[in-house]
Write the structure tokens for this entry.
Amino acid sequence: MLNNIKKPEPLAAQTAAEQKTAPKAEKVVEAPKSAEPQMEGKPVSAAKAEKAAAAAKAKAEKAAAAAAAKAEKAAAAAKAKAEKAAAAAKAKAEKAPGRKRAAGGRKAAAPEVKLYVQYQGKQLSQEEAVEAVKAAWAGEAIQRVELYVKPEDGAIYYVINGSETGKVTF
């Protein structure tokens, strides 16, 4: 039995056909053990997934930053609009007290009135009549005065604070 075993031939003695196939066999042996191609020690599909996740995260961060910038811009515009409206209201309020109201639903400023009563060579002004009533009055403080001038009697009738009445001659 020992005679049936073939001894290996030296490499130089191999035929030309065997030499061509030998390098191919070596290449097959050099292939990686995993069926998936690898990148930096990780399978390519996992590396692609990580890369895609990183890209998605970067895109989401960019979108969030853009949305935040847009929100800040909108807030600044709203604030500017509110400030402008407040300034316009303030300017309108400042103008309003100095303005006289016109007719047609708005009250006009009361005009200054000077009243004079002339009868049979005598003259009485509004101021003189009020002073005469104040001098004759000895009661409570005067809030409101109503004067009624009757020249034929030579008298001024008055009502003070809506209830107290009296007469002063002129």
